[in-house]
Amino acid sequence: MPIAQPAPTVTLEGIELRVLHLPLVSPFTTSFGTETVREVIVARALTADGDGWGEIVTQESPLYSSEYTQGAWDVSLRFLIPALLDRHTLAPEDVASVLEPFVGHRMAKAGLELAILDAALRAEGRPFGQYLGAIRD
After folding, report:
1. Which H or E run contains 54?
2. Which residues of the chain are under the pLDDT cut of 50?
3. Which of 5, 12, 48, 55 is the most buried (most CB within 10 A)?
4. In whole angstroms, what is the distance from residue 99 CA to residue 39 CA?
């Protein structure tokens, strides 16, 4: 289903990344081992109209996926964020095409795209669910 009303264009002033180590309520065990702490990257898109947040959902080690936290951090800072900042003004729907030349790194790309989308929707005062077409009964 297509988005009924696209998100507005934003003027991107910067993107910050933060690595968080979140303790789990209880240990999470899989065939890859047991985790007691979840390591993630949180991306903050700074725009002229406010900030937005996204999560890069990598794990510390590339056991489940080829992407991992340090790799996502590196590719985001060295390639993805500079490409977005070079555009300066863009619509969230344009993020994928701006980042398309960089092969792979889907988790990093998605987290940055969500941060920009969140900033655009917050500036407009529109909930994410409404953007997706959700309705209340």
Report:
1. strand 50-56
2. none
3. 12
4. 24
Amino acid (1-letter code) at residue 17: L
Q: How far apart are the first and last CA of the chain?
A: 20
Give Rg (Cα) of the chain: 16
| DSSP-assigned letter for residue 6 | P
pLDDT in the model for residue 21: 94
From edge to edge, which strands make up the β-sheet containing 50-56? 50-56, 33-47, 10-30, 89-90
pLDDT in tens, 42-56: 999 999 999 999 999
Q: Are 41 and 105 in contact (CB under 8 A)?
A: no
| Whole-angstrom distance, CA of residue 40 vs CA of residue 33 | 18
Q: Pull the structure tokens for residue 71.
A: 């790799």
Instruction: Please give the pLDDT value at position 118.
Output: 97
Write the DSSP string, 9-28.
PEEEEEEEEEEEEEEEEEEE
The single-letter DSSP state of residue 60 is: S
Instruction: Answer yes or no: are the C-beta atoms of 62 and 76 closer than 8 Å.
Output: no
pLDDT recorded at residue 52: 97
Look up residue 29 and give its amino acid: T
